[in-house]
Design brief:
By secondary structure, the chain is mainly α. It contains 3 helices and no strands.
Amino acid sequence: MPQTYQQYLKEHHEQHLKELFDFLQIPSVSSLSEHQTDVRKVFFARKKCRVLQYINSFIPHKNSI
């Protein structure tokens, strides 16, 4: 049986919180070369957000029924 999105979110809750906190710790000064790794993290997080937004578009919501 396929996993529901609620089950997925519940099972990966800690991972998602860790990723969010990692994202929030990225310095805002991205033009400095010593922050190059942090800038890559932002691009990865942005891509992941877009994927989640795409997946969310297929989930029926109470307001759209």
